[in-house]
Amino acid sequence: MTTALYEPRIPDNLNIRFVENRILINRPAQEVYDWVTTWSNLPKWLPMALGTEVRRGTADVPAELGDELLETIHPELNEKPKLYTVVARVPGKLWTVVGRDVHDDGSLAPAMHAIATFTTFDLGDGTTLFCRLFERLIPDTEPPGPHPVEDPARIQPGLELIKAHLEGTAG
Prior knowledge:
Blueprint: E1 16-25, H1 29-36, H2 42-45, E2 49-56, E3 68-73, E4 82-90, E5 94-101, E6 114-122, E7 128-137, H3 152-167
InterPro entries: Polyketide_cyclase/dehydratase, START-like_dom_sf
Organism: Amycolatopsis samaneae
Pfam family, one: Polyketide_cyc2
């Protein structure tokens, strides 16, 4: 099984783009799942996140169905803040959030713009394969080509931080 960066085989001229990252973590799957699905840990690893605010739920425990998080994104990435809502949850295995843009006046876009799915695979030896699949709907007004939030090389250092925190090697 390869854990290399995802190499997309899907054309980037569609109205949706995909980026997948994965990493092996020397911790049990439930522990990995609990850590990455806890809202307060997001700024510790996600390189795009400038800040977060829990709108529904509890910051320091794994997020439940319907919980919401407002994520502000580094301005140089030219992305609006996102309100993420947990829409799928299989404890210890899968967690999916959908994000809607938050307009400058605080109103929400009428449709989702991004989907992030985290999966943990127990490899049977106390090691977990953690995968993050990010899907982004592309507006007609966006120039062609990948956006920085779709670059697996920008996300992989974040997964390295998850690994470091969980394995106790974070600085």
